[in-house]
Write a structure and sequence with these properties.
3 strands, three-stranded antiparallel beta sheet, mainly beta, 45 residues, 0% helix
Length: 45
């Protein structure tokens, strides 16, 4: 499961706690903490 600070590749990720959608546009983008709840674990959408 992708976590904050990782570079999991471009795509859409959803916070495992609140479901907020994060979009990474580049393979080198780093996954930030959730902007809504600050959770750090995501699942790829």
């Amino acid at each position: 499961m992708p976590s904050t600070g990782e570079q999991p590749g471009k795509g859409v990720y959803y916070c495992k706690k609140c479901g907020t959608r994060i979009v990474l546009d580049e393979d080198t983008d780093t996954l930030p903490p959730c902007e809504r709840c600050n959770h750090r674990e995501f699942e790829k959408g």
